Amino acid sequence: MKVFKFGGASVKDAKAVRNVSKVLDTQGFGECLLVVSAMGKTTNALEAVVNAWAAGEDFVRKLRDSESFHLDIAEELFQVNHTIFSEIKLRFSEIFKFLSENPSASYDFAYDQVVSAGEIISSKILSAYLNDAGFYNNWLDARCVIKTDSNFREANVDWDATAKKISELEMSLPAVTQGFIASDEKDATVTLGREGSDYSAAIFAYCLDAESMTIWKDVPGVMTGDPQVFENVQLLNSISYEEAIELAYYGASVIHPKTLQPLKQKNIPFFVKSFLEPSASGTKIGLSLDNQFVESYILKQNQHLLKISTKDFSFIAEEHMSHIFRLLAQNKINISLMQNSAISLALCLEDRFRNLEELISELRKDYKVDLVKDVSLFTVRHFSPGDLEKFYEGKDVLIEQSSPSALQIVFR
Q1: Which DSSP symbol is given to 224?
Q2: Bond preceding residue 174 cis, omega within 30 of 0
Q3: What is one process in the GO biological process aspect for this record (predicted)?
Q4: How far apart are CA 362 and CA 401, in angstroms?
């Protein structure tokens, strides 16, 4: 069987939903599991609902806007008496009830209960549309089979429990399910981290021993750079798991960092293809013998540069590093680049959970801390040493780091 993952752009409106059936026409739909993301920018919209609720502001208008967005799409796809309309209204009614009745719920818990609705609704709409279009399928609630801990907003998969649940699943294929969402041991809804739908697809592929996994995107495949940011980028036809993992580690947005390990463990081929040109070859990721070591570019924005030193100018020793990393982990702050000298530690950080100020407050009890906000991290894979100067042009470089395979520059 095959696992197909359709991201938010591939189901962003009624036209896009119809296009999914065209993709399936070219690919076959028999033994297939479809994993779908929330529609378009729904996750951002539902995040805004949670943020308004947490700030004590009017969240209802934002919630109604998101409901109207989905109902408008449904009106283009279905007859007026279709059951999908009551399904959509029910989901938004449940969100309203939850937020109204749980004013003191923790932010992370509330976030997962609200934002997860995006995937539930999009998968309901896609499943219903495909059934009406003759692509008969079953709807599967991913929360019933993907089990995790209770680390809300970035839960860790319980692989043994998940594999057991999926092995017991009497699933009639084809089926449509959700990315990004799962449940903990108490059956509370959790999410797997932003852009986690790719990871969900890999979990299913691993546990079902899939013959392949394909992610359908609005680009031809894995490129040497984001075509919206860089000029003259090219398609990478074939890369190894290892190269893809490196690209994901450095921040290539086309691949979720956690996606590749489950696939590599069972040597499941992984394709990145365009839903606009489904017959095109795209990129194959696997045990590649013809890996393309082509100069590639990755830009990570919305980063922060933190410089930490001891107050008495003593060395940054192991006990200091251990303390600093523990605080980073507690505040769920990711390190994009690290550089240390004898008396200082420079960290380029990604603050997805907005805990940076709390981290700095803790660090300043023991260290001298300097912060430069809103910097960018530019990474070049497989760079040519003779071309180094062009990468520095027009940049106020704060720190740089290079290895034989990658050049990294933090700039503003």
Answers
A1: S
A2: yes
A3: threonine biosynthetic process
A4: 27
Residue positions counted in the chain: 412
Name residue 212's beta-bridge partners. Answer: 2
- Residues 6 or more apart in contact with residue 297 via CB below 8 angstroms: 224, 225, 226, 229, 230, 233, 378, 379, 380, 381
Does the fold of domain 296-411 match that of domain 2-217? Answer: no
Closest CA to 341 of 397, 399, 410: 399
For 296-411, which CATH class? alpha beta
Q: What is the DSSP code (8-state) at residue 140? A: -
AA letter at 289: L
| Contact (Cβ atoms closer than 8 angstroms) between residue 219 and residue 154 | no
Percent above pLDDT 90 for the chain: 89
pLDDT for 42: 98
Map out the domains of the chain as residue ranges: 2-217, 296-411
**221's tokens:** 């495949």
User: What does the alpha-carbon distance between residue 159 and residue 397 come to, in Å, rounded to a whole number?
Assistant: 42
Strands 175-178 and 32-36: parallel
Q: How many CA atoms lie within 13 A of 263 on its CB side?
A: 32
- Mean per-residue pLDDT over the chain, rounded: 95
Give the tokens for residue 113.
């209960």
Report the run of H or E that residue 188 belongs to, with start and end. none
- Compute the distance between CA of residue 254 and CA of residue 65 in angstroms, rounded to an integer: 29
d(CA 122, CA 40): 10
Helices (H), 104-211: 107-115, 117-132, 159-168, 197-207
> Tokens 């921040």 appear where?
251
Name the DSSP letter for residue 232: S
Q: CATH classification of 2-217 is 3.40.1160.10, yes or no?
A: yes
C-alpha 274/C-alpha 215 separation (Å) is 8
d(CA 411, CA 328): 22
Q: By the 8 A CB rule, do 11 and 17 touch?
A: yes
- Alpha-carbon Rg for the chain, nearest whole angstrom, is 23
pLDDT of 255 higher than 90: no
Torsion of CA 308, 309, 310, 315, to 10 degrees: 120
